[in-house]
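Records of this kind hold a single protein each, on a pair of labelled lines. Below, a sample record shows both lines together.
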Amino acid sequence: MEDSTSPKVKVAGSPDRGRFTFHHSWFDKDVLPDWEEFTVPLLAKKLHILEVGSFEGASTTWLLDNLMSHPESTVTAVDTFEGGMEHQGSDSYDIDSLEDRFRSNVNKCKHVDRLRVIRAKSDDALLDLRREKARFDFIYIDASHVALDVLHDAVVCWRMLNIGGTIVFDDVAWKGYMEDCYNPRIAIKSFLQCAEQELEATETEGQMWVRKIPNHIPATPNPDPALYYWGKGMAVKL
């Protein structure tokens, strides 16, 4: 993956985004140029894509329009369509019509027949997909913004990601809560540290792109039994 400061390469022939109706333009305004650049190597490949958190379908429609060139490529989208903790009590998101807006948007895509929608919490849906032995080449995580939920989604999705595949975490810089223990960044950074031996990561303006690679840091047994355990009062560095 190239450095995010390199010149952008847009997806050739990307369909018109103006045909969709989005109340919020986060995806198109904030991250679309990075997606157009970083997904160029994926064009025309057979891809099984998982989207955890779809909201109005901004990223879903882009995936259907741009990464479905191979006739066997698919997209699986997981969402409750009930909004997250930060959406509750706000009229600006019109959560009551969220699923209708999503379905109206994706139905305008040529490859909507390749889309599987799972209306459920990621807690349940991802474990069901693991039981199905599902495997994916590209995963986008943009569901609950609560750190524990993000960490859960990261770990379960990583188990389903093929080597060479990519996970994109949204909202790596989002700070919607005053307490850091709730915000996505602490979960994403903790996951990156735990899986450091089998990933390459690139942080962009607001997202983290993570590629799964073969394990390149073999575990080294501790040769000193006296150091097997953290001493009382010793801090674990994160």
